[in-house]
Amino acid sequence: MFSCPLSSGRAGLGRKFADLIQYFTQLVASYAVGFYLSWKLTVVLIASFPVIAGAGAFMINAVTAAQVTPPNTTIVTLSSLLSPPSCFNHLHS
After folding, report:
1. Euclidean distance between CA atoms 63 and 76, whole angstroms
2. Of 2, 13, 42, 55, which sees the most CB atoms within 10 A?
3. pTM given for the model
4. What is the average pLDDT across 50-78?
């Protein structure tokens, strides 16, 4: 019933590759239709593409950096807030 994990990985990559081809084809077709209908607007869109790509790269880097916890950061949990401070440990013994 279950196959080897390698074949499922290939299926997952195949889907992503198919999506890549679909999105690229849509991009090219939309620019072709744009040139046909309004070439001036399409030139403006093409000129703004590097700015949009740069903003996307900046956002990816910002989100990735925000997901990484710095090594000296203390994570506060509910149990650490409810437990008594360590200075009171000698009173319990």
Report:
1. 21
2. 42
3. 0.47
4. 79
